[in-house]
Design goal:
The chain is mainly alpha-helical. The radius of gyration is 16 Å and the shape is globular.
C-alpha cells in the first residue's frame, strides 16, 4: 500500500523538526502497517481503506505538537496532574487535524476521527479507552491500535525528563495503563511481539 504523495510531502516538511523521537513519522508508518496486518479484524477485511486510514492516522496523529512548542515537550519537569501545561498538550490532536486539513483535503473523516480520539482518556478520564461512545464502530479497533502505537513510541523515545525505555519496560508501563482501563487488554497482549519486531527492525536498518 502506498501512502498518498501529498502526505509524504507533509512528512518531508515536518520530519526535520520532529519533537522527541527520531524518525517518528516513518516508524509510526512501519508499526501501523505491521500491526494492521497482524490484527485479524483489520487484516482480513476486504476494505483496504481501513488499513490505510489506520496507517495515515498513526503517522500524522501528533503533528499538532509543533504548535504546542518545544519548551513544553523538552521540559525536564515532571508535570503534576493540575499543571496547566497538560491543557495545552491536550490540544495537539485538534491542532493535528487543523494542519492536515490545510495541507490535504483528501484524507477521510475516519482518519480525523482516529487522530481526534487517539488519547481517549482526554475525553473520559474515569473510564479510559474502553468506553468511547463518541467513536464510530468503523474506527474502533484502529483507534485502539493507534493509541498503543502512540504510547509505545513515546516510551521508547528519549525525553528530556526521563530516559529511553527498552521494549520490556515500555510494555510494562502500557500494561499498567491497561489495568487502569486505558487500553484494551487483549489487544495489548496480542500486539506485544509485533510491536517489538517492527520497532527493532526499523531502527536496525535505518
Amino acid at each position: 500500500m502506498e501512502i498518498k504523495e501529498s502526505c509524504h510531502k507533509i512528512v518531508q516538511m515536518l520530519e526535520s523538526a520532529e519533537i522527541g523521537s527520531e524518525g517518528a513519522f516513518k516508524v509510526s508508518e512501519v508499526l501501523a502497517k505491521k500491526l494492521s496486518e497482524q490484527f485479524p479484524s483489520v487484516s482480513v477485511t476486504k476494505d483496504k481503506s481501513i488499513q490505510e486510514n489506520l496507517i495515515l492516522a498513526a503517522m500524522f496523529r501528533d503533528i499538532g505538537k509543533f504548535n504546542v512548542g518545544e519548551a513544553i515537550f523538552n521540559s525536564k519537569d515532571i508535570f503534576k496532574p493540575d499543571d496547566t501545561r497538560w491543557e495545552v498538550i491536550k490540544e495537539h490532536p485538534r491542532k493535528s487535524i487543523e494542519i492536515l486539513k490545510r495541507h490535504d483535503n483528501l484524507l477521510s473523516q475516519e482518519v480525523f476521527e482516529i487522530i481526534k480520539y487517539h488519547h481517549p482518556w482526554y475525553f473520559d478520564e474515569s473510564n479510559g479507552a474502553c468506553s468511547l461512545d463518541k467513536v464510530s464502530n468503523s474506527v474502533g479497533n484502529s483507534l485502539h491500535i493507534v493509541s498503543i502505537i502512540d504510547a509505545y513510541i513515546g516510551l521508547r523515545a528519549k525525553r528530556a525528563r526521563r530516559r529511553q525505555y527498552n521494549h520490556v519496560e515500555a510494555m510494562t508501563e502500557i500494561q499498567k495503563d491497561m489495568a487502569n482501563g486505558k487500553f484494551l487488554g487483549t489487544l495489548v497482549l496480542y500486539l506485544d511481539l509485533p510491536l517489538e519486531e517492527a520497532y527493532e527492525g526499523f531502527f536496525k536498518v535505518n
